[in-house]
Amino acid sequence: GENVEQHPSTLSVQEGDSAVIKCTYSDSASNYFPWYKQELGKRPQLIIDIRSNVGEKKDQRIAVTLNKTAKHFSLHITETQPEDSAVYFCAASDSGGSNYKLTFGKGTLLTVNP
Amino acid sequence: KAGVTQTPRYLIKTRGQQVTLSCSPISGHRSVSWYQQTPGQGLQFLFEYFSETQRNKGNFPGRFSGRQFSNSRSEMNVSTLELGDSALYLCASSLALGSEAFFGQGTRLTVV
Predict the structure, then answer these.
(1) Strand B87-94 and strand B102-103: pairing?
(2) What value does the mean pLDDT of chain B take?
(3) A102: chain B residues, CB-CB within 8 Å
(4) Residue-level pLDDT at A94
(5) For the CA atoms of A112, A54, A48, A29, what is the dihedral angle to 10 degrees?
(6) Residue A44: is the preceding peptide bond cis (ω within 30°)?
(7) Which end of chain B has fewer CB atoms < 10 Å from its terminal CB, N or C?
(8) Which among A93, A101, A103, A106 is the top mutation candidate for probing chain B, defined by the most B β-carbons within 10 Å of its own β-carbon?
(9) Strands A108-113 vs A10-14: parallel, antiparallel or unpaired
(10) Are B41 and B60 in contact (CB under 8 A)?
(11) Burial of B28 (C-beta count, 10 Å sphere; 0-12/13-18/19+)
């Protein structure tokens, strides 16, 4: 089955700096890669996703890049703010295929220091 | 549009008991999946239901079971509770299998 590795497990940055979280996946059939943000005591919320037919997607201060050959994808947050502090999870699935369940990485605790 | 609703929000049970958790998906969503979240293991997939059928199952013992009703609402049941079952149980609903998933607030289960 699919295996998703996520690094780093913790990340501390100064407000205004950029943050990058990286994930690798094992199943070459995976074609859907969402990122979730979970604030303390709250539910995970989808912040951005990418499908395997594109290499990059941006939404304001966040962007995701995908390298299908190397089987890794990354989340980039620019101009970080204290409210970006949360746990971020990457996930992968073979949407529409036989392994469509979302497999999550173990999460990255991002702390943005004011 | 109402989001994903999970009940109850908190539960305290003793070892050996059984528990049933409920999840009401977003209206129109036919897929419901369940996850166990613990500090050390992150989000671990339990199972996914679509049109009342279990379509996928994670690596959990048979004590964990679930079902989905014709209105897409889903329940999961854990029998013979163990201390290690203490966790946040999250359900997520999707329009279709493998598509964008929206999470509920979760049920915090504590086994004592």
Answers:
(1) antiparallel
(2) 94
(3) 33, 45, 92, 98, 101
(4) 84
(5) -100
(6) no
(7) N
(8) A101
(9) parallel
(10) no
(11) exposed
The tokens describing A75, both together, are: 């989340």
Residues in Cβ contact with B42 at an 8 Å cutoff, skipping those fewer than 6 apart: A89, A104, A105, A106, A107
Show Cβ contacts of residue A60 under 8 Å, excluding neighbours closer than 6 positions: none
Token pair of B15 as six digits = 């070892």
Extract the runs of DSSP E, i.e. beta strands, from B39-86. 42-50, 53-57, 64-68, 74-78
Average pLDDT per 10 consecutive residues for chain A, totaling 114 residues: 93 98 94 94 94 91 96 97 97 77 92 96
Q: Shortest CB distance from B101 goes to which of A96, A102, A105?
A: A102
